[in-house]
Amino acid sequence: MDISRTLFFCCLMLAGLVAGAVIGWQLPPFHLSLETISPDTKPVKRDEVPIKSGSEDLSETTISTYEVGKNEVRADISPVESDFEEPLEQALEDTDTDLMSGDVAEEQKFTPRIETAGLPAHNFPKRFLRPPRSVVQKRALTKLVRFETSPFPYDGVMPHNGEPFLNHEEDGRKAHKTRSGRIYYQDETYNEERVLLHIPKGFDIEKPAYMVLFFHGHGATLERDIINRQRVPQQLSRAGVNAVLVAPQFAKNARDSSAGKFWQPGGARKFVQEAERKLGELYGVPGLAGRFKNMPIFIVGYSGGFLPTAWTLARGGISKRVKGVALMDGLYGHQKTFSRWISRHRDAIFVSAYTGLTARRNVSLEEGLTSDGIGVVKEFEGSFEPGTVAIVRSDEDHHSYITKAWTSMPIRDLLKRSDAVLREN
Fold first, then answer.
1. Is the predicted pLDDT of residue 385 greater than 70, yes or no?
2. Long-range pairs for 394-398 at CB < 8 Å and ≥24 separation?
3. pTM, entire model
């Protein structure tokens, strides 16, 4: 008898809860957890943010966000203690829409369920449950961003002789006179503070990722050459790797390899640290900007870009983070610097693809490494392994070497071959 009465009252209470949920009675605040249900992969937790409701701050109520694609989203709701009571539907409506909003590839496949303690699972109106913003980049982001740590302007000294970099002046205009006698003015050639940042479509900060630094050659500008002619952002995107691109402007449209602030001890480290912050801002997902810190780094130095590459390895303060270096017909000097870095970082990748312009130095580098017991491969075959050193001759036009060398779109090819090693670090 007592058992029957107990069951009767339990059923009555359960019916009351269900009725209350249906007709909108007052319900306490809830913890709302969103997760992706995929037939192929396990649910991946993305973030946790507070819910705010009206003028009241439900500080103990959080939304744990997960990646949302074509998959079903399950909402597990459990009540939390609070003196403030409000209908669940209203609480969700008042939630910060910026934190909750996001795109679903095929909205007709988005069928949320609710599971609550004491309540049966049932369909929940879409207007009350918006999918969280996905951390997977929905479209490519390419932007020129102003940096305080950009290589130029630079008013310091040249390390090889200790003389001021701005060593010439005409009509009140400061300039740099190169060893060959060319004169480049600061306000034309050494004044670009913007840096090219690129985050490809599909980039996921929650997965292993790395940063690609691209150092251009002579006579280049970010827009005309790196973006439009050499298509460096496009090559990274088409490689399909989980990486971001950072490309500073050195001497603009000039035959000069000066490294500017990258000559200074720790100059590259300060630059990379600012790049991490700016990439986080560009990525735009609250709470995840810090994930760009301490990414492995892959440096690509084309032609005259060899000089800032060498100084970055020698004095930049990030040599331990650099897990790969690729010189694109760029071994015009600092052979000992590159040889020393290779010897000290035997788990990293080093590539030097070259034409007849740099053949002599590349052959010398290969012979020196071989005599030190370091194996060198002379052609590209398959994916790179940790410690791969490839010195490969490919006699294509130097001016077009970034778009056509041993293959078309060679940066894309290098990234695909290096990807497994870079992601492991």
1. yes
2. 394/353, 394/354, 394/355, 395/355, 395/356, 396/355, 398/303, 398/329, 398/355, 398/357
3. 0.70
